[in-house]
Design brief:
By secondary structure, the chain is α/β, with parallel strands linked by helices. It is built from eleven helices and ten strands. The strands form two sheets. It has a five-stranded parallel sheet. The protein has a five-stranded mixed sheet with strand order 6-7-8-9-10. Helix 2 runs antiparallel to helix 4 and helix 3 runs antiparallel to helix 4. It binds manganese (II) ion (2 copies).
Length: 310
């Protein structure tokens, strides 16, 4: 029985590349799987796929029309997953996020580790199972780790991620620092994209104590250039928040070279107060100063969660 393997909506490089890697591993172990994606790859992901000779996975919106069972990569929360997930059986999860609102009817394989990237976990699984990693696939897995850890600089980075990067770079035959910087830069070309596309590209929704919070992240190597578009970002965020019913929409503009972020935020009075409490500062014309912040998962979601759950 065929199963589909996929990462979260608004897929990043981890969601797409690690789904391909995990699908390959599972097929070696006797499963019949296909890696698919819940959205189109970003420029960064396209750069990685292209570099190592892969096609972008087929994009699906629903899955129950073609399979009974699925494997989830790089997510577990239902609002980040496929729309009809309640209609299929989840047989495997490999993830490095908090576990939230996740329930299944049947037992499953669930592998979670607090490491920087899902590919680091899948790299361990290849080693545990004694399955050889093809050179091209090692390149994809390496790309995922570089993406999630911003070249091992994010505070989410662990010793295991560093070990995986070194091992995978060797198998792939690339210099991870120069390749990694080129890949990250490929993902920061925002000049020819609309604000509404940019705020949707790497965005996640969270339910915090009854409020729906949307947090998007846009990587840049030129923060002043990105901030010139502030008013247009705010307008696009408001349109999206009205359409989707978000109580708070926070967009992080992250300078990947200097590891700093600016936050742009709109939302209800209560939600804005929650945001201000979380970061102990007042919003100044919808703007938040976030020095040293590069990780949504480690530096944004936890303080927001504690502020909203008070
Ligand atoms: Mn991800
Ligand atoms: Mn990830």
């Amino acid at each position: 029985m065929k199963e589909l393997v996929f990462g979260h909506r608004s897929p990043d490089t981890d969601a797409i590349d690690t789904a391909i890697a995990f699908s390959y591993l599972q097929n070696q172990l006797g499963y019949d799987t296909e890696a698919v994606a819940l959205g189109e790859p970003s420029d960064e992901t396209k750069y990685a796929l292209n570099k190592f000779g892969y096609q972008a996975p087929r994009v699906v919106k629903i899955v129950a029309n073609e399979v009974d069972a699925v494997m989830l990569i790089d997510h577990n929360e239902p609002q980040q997953s496929v729309a009809d997930r309640d209609k299929v059986t989840v047989t495997h999860v490999v993830d490095h996020h908090r576990i939230m609102n996740f329930e299944t009817k049947a037992p499953l394989f669930y592998r979670a580790e607090p490491v920087g990237c899902t590919s680091t976990i899948v790299w361990e699984m290849f080693n545990e199972k004694g399955v050889e990693i093809p050179s091209k696939l090692a390149g994809l897995m390496l790309s995922a780790i570089i993406s999630d850890t911003l070249l091992l600089k994010s505070p989410t980075t662990t010793e295991l991620d560093k070990k995986a990067v070194k091992a995978l770079a060797e198998i792939a035959g690339v210099d991870y620092e120069s390749y990694g910087l080129a890949m990250l830069k490929a993902g920061t070309n925002i000049a020819d994209k609309s604000e509404s596309d940019l705020i949707d590209q790497d965005a996640k929704s969270f339910e915090l104590n009854g409020s729906t919070i949307r947090v998007a992240q846009i990587n840049t190597v030129d923060l002043p250039e990105a901030m010139e578009r502030k008013d247009a970002f705010l307008k696009a965020m408001q349109t999206e928040a009205d359409a989707q019913g978000y109580d708070l929409f926070l967009v992080l503009l992250t300078d990947i070279l200097n590891s700093n972020s600016k936050g742009l935020a709109i939302g209800s009075t209560d939600a804005q107060a929650g945001l201000e409490a979380a970061f102990d500062q007042k919003l100044q014309a919808n703007e938040l100063d976030l020095p040293g912040v590069v990780s949504r998962k480690k530096q944004i979601v936890p303080p927001l969660t504690s502020a909203f759950e008070k």
